[in-house]
Amino acid sequence: MKRKFKIHIFVMSISILLLQNVAFSQNTSIIQGVVKNTSGQVLSGASIQSGKKIATSDEKGIYHLSLSPGEYSISINLIGFQDQKKKITLSENQVINLDWALSTDTTSNLNNVVVIGSRAAPRTSLTSPVPVDVFDIKKIASLGAQTTVGQILNYVAPSFTSTSQSLGDGTDEVDPISLRGLGPDQVLVLVNGKRRYTSALVNVNGTFGKGTVGTDLNAIPVAAIDRIEVLRDGAAAQYGSDAVAGVINIILKHNVNQFNASVTAGEYATRAKALNETFHDGQSNQIALNYGIPLTSKGGYINFSGSFDYRKPTNRGGIYTGSIYNAYGPDKTAAGALVAHDQTDSFLNATGTSRRDYSLIVGQSRIRSGQFAYNASLPLSNNATLYSFGTFGYRNGLAAGFYRYPNDTRNIPSIYPLGYMPYIGTSIYDKSIAVGIKGKTNNGWNVDFSNTYGQNQFEYHVQNSLNASMGTNSPTSFNNGGPKFSQNTVNLDLNRDFDWLSGVNLAFGGEYRYEHYQLIAGDANSYTNYGLADSVGVNANGTPILVLDPNGSYNTLFGRDGNPVPGGSQVFSGFRPANAANATRSAVAGYADAAVNFTKKFLVDGAIRYENYSDFGSTLNGKLSFLYKLTENLSLRGSGSTGFRAPSLQQIYYANTATQFTNGVAYEVGTFTNGSRAAKLLGIPSLKPEKSKSVSAGVTGRFGKFTATVDGYFTRVNDRIVYTDQFSGSNAAGASAADQELYQILAQAGAQKAQFFANAINTETKGIDAVFSYTEHLGKGTFRADLSGTISQTQKVGPVHASELLKGKESTYFSPASLIYLTNAVPKQKLNLGLNYNISKWIFFVRNNYFGGVTEPVTTVANQQFYNPRWVTDVSIGYQIIKEAKVTIGSNNVFNVYPETINIAANSNSGQFVYPRATSQFGFNGRYVFARVELSL
């Protein structure tokens, strides 16, 4: 560690010494100045051009254009603003200051300027060689009911999906995301162009994204975000691991001298016909603040944002129809177990309770959170800029689990006479900070050196629970431990424009990334089974002589139903010392990128990237993309690339035992690492990187007030990492030695079944995305229509990659349910139509959302119910009371649309799941109404 820290310091010191000497080169004649809007705010990304000579304004709005003496017509272009032209005359060795004040173009969109997808100067979404969507978050958040990043993108980004989960343990607090139908861990997230760390959580429960480790988008406050760029194209050759499906780049605000605040409140006001109930629940409140302070007169700033959120739970669960109270005996089954006799009705009459009291809570969890972010830039001497940004947050969640019935082996009747509903509490700590310096060298190279650090930690606290093996001595709340993940990334990036051909940009750089994963054990009573014993011999009858031992493989405690009494806290067992992990790895990368304008109509962008990981070796990836302008307003584009995704440390080192319900039956299921003895018994190898190949092709066009982009794509992923289904051992006399040993290992872990992470399959994903926009002055107002849609399909290709020891068990290694999680747990088709009309002080907004059908992810083919597509409509009306204040009211899902109900009894968990839980199109909470007040001072 000390050696790696010294390397960090050495590299940083050398880079800072280099950058202390940055200075703009002086040419014979120069035009320079600052680009601002009419309100005085500096504008970056503007193109200032004279013939083939092009300059771009930087983050301070400053540009420099070198020309020979003579007369010139200088033009400036920035999407969202009206073009301007000026004529000048330059004499030898002359420097002319030429500032610009750009007026807004109401028929265009400022946020079509994108910075991802190429290392060259910012382009527009129509002139980018790869598809990039750009979303004005302030505007979108002002119109809709959504208050988190994942929710907002779910309703505006065509190929993006993210919905709240239910009964998914930690996944209830971190919404899994999908881009172009691929998994949460195949999307790279950047903040201000710098790699964002992933969540510490690995999703091992029955929800979309099972087995993956994603990035928690909702840890970034919406109040801090200026815009979001979504690159829908494989980009691992440009940005490294995880960018298989694409990249999401979150740009933070940098405005100054303006205080913005908003208060949003809402609730679900809905009637669920299938439940025959009316609900007013899920109340949520958000207070969002933003303020920027100028630093010096050279364009520096520091922008602060804060968000405080509270969300109450919802419940759309049905009434439990199964047995609540069983009496056992005196008769026995052929196997010798006592026969269960259902006495539910008499129990309910005696206790004065109803079946509803024992039913699941199926809905969103309760969440309280506070988040803070800052974004700062400080101009230094020698034309260098010091910058920094960071986010800090805390989130507390409480999610319900499955009910434990009164005389279940998982209950102690003297503690909970009526059984109990256990809850998983989570405390999530999230922090990140980036510091960098950038400028321009004497020979024209743009240099950017930065260090980015981030950490995410989960702490689990189980409440209203017990450890059944402790009997009446059991506590009812537990500290269960949890995972922690941190990442430190050092980047050095250089690029320069050249006047070759019609313009060339060359870029290269390097990255050093250090990752640290910890799995922290909980308190002993959260994981120990105090009813286990070990054998110290046999007596005269050949019966084992047992001594209580928490690490033993013999059960000594059994419930009335004959099942062993489980140990650990119910609903979520604590992490054991044997599960504890403290793993690190490092990765070193180097890349080169060239964007070549062969002519004004033909652009080719190529990239190559080499990465070496300390735990599995090297990988080399490349990408080639092009843009060809058929006319000034119509272009063809395409790309081809190879990519990879490194297995996360979470997937490599996560281990735990937890209660999982399969077809309504509870099992203690252990997750074992690939280096464990259990994995070796099944022939499961160590994890290796996923490898991908992607191609895409599309067309972009602007026809007056109408713009369009249509892109098709194909992605092949080999050796895709999955979370297997449940293996079990056997202690039967005729069982194999391996099955008997696996049985003993499971017993020592307090488990009945085992699961693993494995490179099990190859997949292919193909689809088409389309985005259309139209703007028109209608009457005295402005009308805008945005239509975006996607059609995608993912399928498994080739056989399951099972070992010889797993012959005949391929359906457990990769089950039909796991296949559905990959192929149809999120909609294959999605359509968003947004209509916006601004007139005077009024803003009217309507959005229609089409969500394609999904399939129930279960192994039994007969139970794989298909849930039909649905249309969901959002509306809002905003009114500008005064210049500084605006009020908006509206509704998400105004027509109260619910997903199709479950009609296969096996999927309903004895009637408790009325709407699909394991797969989700848009949630199942019904109509949401809201009101928002915004202040701008």
UniProtKB/TrEMBL annotation:
Q: Which residues form the signal peptide?
A: 1-25
- What are its GO cellular component terms? cell outer membrane
Q: Gene3D superfamilies from the xrefs?
A: Carboxypeptidase-like, regulatory domain, TonB-dependent receptor, beta-barrel domain, TonB-dependent receptor, plug domain
| Keyword Cell cycle on entry | no
Q: Where in the cell is it found?
A: Cell outer membrane
Residues in a coiled coil are none
Q: Which UniProt keywords apply?
A: Cell outer membrane, Membrane, Receptor, Signal, TonB box, Transmembrane, Transmembrane beta strand, Transport
Quote the InterPro entries the UniProt record gives. Answer: Beta-barrel_TonB, Beta-barrel_TonB_sf, CarboxyPept-like_regulatory, Plug_dom, Plug_dom_sf, TonB-dep_rcpt-like
Membrane topology type: Multi-pass membrane protein
- Give residue ranges for domain TonB-dependent receptor-like beta-barrel: 425-894
Q: Can you give the residue ranges of the TonB-dependent receptor plug domain?
A: 127-247
Q: Which family does it belong to?
A: Belongs to the TonB-dependent receptor family.
Q: What is this protein called?
A: TonB-dependent receptor
